[in-house]
Write a sequence for this structure.
């Protein structure tokens, strides 16, 4: 089967399955991965995720990217991190992290599709046999929306979601009656049950993340201990409904925990640090930039400094990491702002303010990215044009080649066709179609009565002998090379078609 036929078959199957956004069943995702039958990366490449992870696990807030790379290269910060990949599909990210970015890490893959997991395991083992890995990748089939995941509390340093939240919660309601019902939150445009299911997923993610770890970092000259908070990384296209789900769970606002989750997320607990990290990411394709949202689990220090502060008394911040490796601290809303604007007791208004502020950040990032793409495209176009145009020192001339045959039996039209069918490896060469009513280079009407060709004429010389006149625009320095090449071609082997070529320009 050709690749075109195979791609068309896949497209037909996927169209029959329908939009994957909002699908939550194993039946759907098994059918989906069975239809696709190829490996791909959601939204962004594994190297982009590696940069995010290295920043948070190999650096302090003021460490440069160059220093991070130096530390990693010298194995100064290598630690046995534990990562869980939620809804990983058939991504190669787990392989990349354990084989390249964090060689001492353990990686657990958790997905609802056993079809995807089998395919992923085959891909992972083919890239590097599991026996060669210090810590083999673990695979678990399961539903991230279950009320209790099969992992102990405080088990992982990072929860990595690469497109999972976007896939599970589409924000699109197929049943038009739901929007007018109690099942739909009109303020934020999302189903109430999706809000609760997503909150449950965040709570379980929070539960299985390590409370905090103290790692000893061995430097060449000394050893230091650093408290490391665990994190949840959510890679998303940052559409409106996804932003609501991420931000409401970050600030623990406008979400009502179910009774059996109160041990994890209750009104007295501060689950996440009040600074949200947002990483700009290079898309795998297209011009829509995805983002990596990093929520850090509160440490004992956070709880000590903010333990007595309510939701409305904390200062909420975004740390934006741009594509150039810079990061910018952006205040979202301070306790003083809340007091002046009357948000100190209104959760909906408060969350709306948070969402609006983050939407502005996202929009500015995308505008900047689109501008960079346009500039790059313009630069690429200019470079492409410059390779086809002569440089400033080139002297272009309109030339007439007078090609005289060896004898009167030579077919000059065939010579014309052979010459114009080749580029002669001369970028400056362009054959010129002469207007019938104009003369060229003082030739007067020498071609009258002759045979007009596409880029020249066959004109009589005398005694039954004719010559071929051909017209071109070319760099003056390339003329001799062109004539020599034509003579060589028309004199190969036993052929002797051209006696001489004269040039008039």
């Amino acid at each position: 089967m050709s690749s075109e036929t195979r791609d068309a078959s896949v497209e037909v199957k996927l169209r029959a399955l329908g939009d994957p956004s909002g699908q939550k069943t194993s039946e759907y995702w098994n059918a989906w991965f069975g239809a696709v039958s190829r490996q791909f990366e959601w939204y962004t490449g594994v190297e982009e995720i590696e940069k995010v992870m290295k920043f948070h696990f190999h650096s302090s807030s003021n460490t440069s990217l160059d220093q991070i790379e130096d530390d990693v290269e010298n194995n100064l910060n290598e630690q046995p991190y534990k990562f869980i990949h939620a809804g990983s599909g058939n991504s190669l990210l787990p392989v990349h992290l354990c084989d390249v970015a964090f060689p001492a890490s353990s990686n657990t893959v958790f997905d609802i599709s056993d079809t995807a997991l089998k395919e992923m395991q085959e891909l992972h083992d083919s890239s590097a046999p599991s026996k060669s890995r210090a810590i083999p990748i673990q695979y678990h089939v399961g539903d991230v929306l279950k009320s209790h995941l099969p992992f102990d509390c405080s088990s992982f340093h990072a929860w990595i979601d690469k497109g999972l939240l976007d896939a599970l919660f589409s924000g699109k309601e197929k049943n038009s009656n739901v929007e007018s019902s109690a099942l739909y939150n009109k303020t934020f445009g999302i189903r109430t049950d999706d809000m609760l299911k997503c909150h449950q997923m965040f709570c379980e993610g929070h539960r299985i993340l390590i409370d905090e770890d103290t790692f000893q970092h061995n430097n060449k000259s000394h050893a230091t201990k650093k408290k490391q908070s665990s994190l949840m990384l959510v890679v998303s296209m940052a559409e409106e409904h996804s932003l609501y789900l991420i931000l409401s769970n970050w600030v623990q606002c406008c979400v009502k925990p179910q009774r059996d989750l109160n041990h994890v997320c209750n009104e007295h607990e501060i689950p996440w640090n009040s600074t949200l990290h947002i990483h700009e990411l290079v898309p795998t394709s297209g011009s829509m930039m995805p983002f990596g949202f990093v929520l850090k689990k509160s440490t004992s220090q956070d709880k000590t400094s903010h333990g007595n502060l309510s939701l409305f008394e904390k200062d909420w911040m975004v740390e934006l990491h741009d594509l150039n490796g810079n990061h910018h601290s952006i205040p979202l809303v301070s306790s003083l702002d809340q007091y002046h604007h009357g948000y100190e007791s209104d959760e909906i208004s408060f969350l709306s303010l948070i969402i609006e502020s983050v939407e502005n950040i996202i929009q500015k990032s995308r505008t900047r990215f689109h501008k960079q793409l346009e500039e790059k495209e313009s630069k690429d176009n200019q470079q492409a044009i410059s390779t086809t145009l002569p440089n400033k020192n080139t002297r272009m001339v309109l030339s007439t080649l007078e090609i005289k045959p060896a004898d009167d039996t030579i077919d000059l039209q065939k010579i014309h066709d052979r010459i114009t069918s080749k580029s002669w490896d001369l970028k400056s060469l362009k054959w010129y179609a002469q207007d019938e009513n104009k003369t060229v280079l003082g030739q007067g009407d020498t071609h009258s009565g002759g045979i007009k060709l596409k880029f020249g004429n066959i004109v009589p010389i005398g005694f039954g002998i004719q010559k071929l006149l051909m017209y071109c625009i070319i760099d003056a320095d390339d003329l001799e090379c062109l004539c020599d090449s034509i003579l060589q071609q028309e004199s190969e082997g036993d052929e002797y078609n051209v006696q001489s070529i004269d040039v008039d320009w």
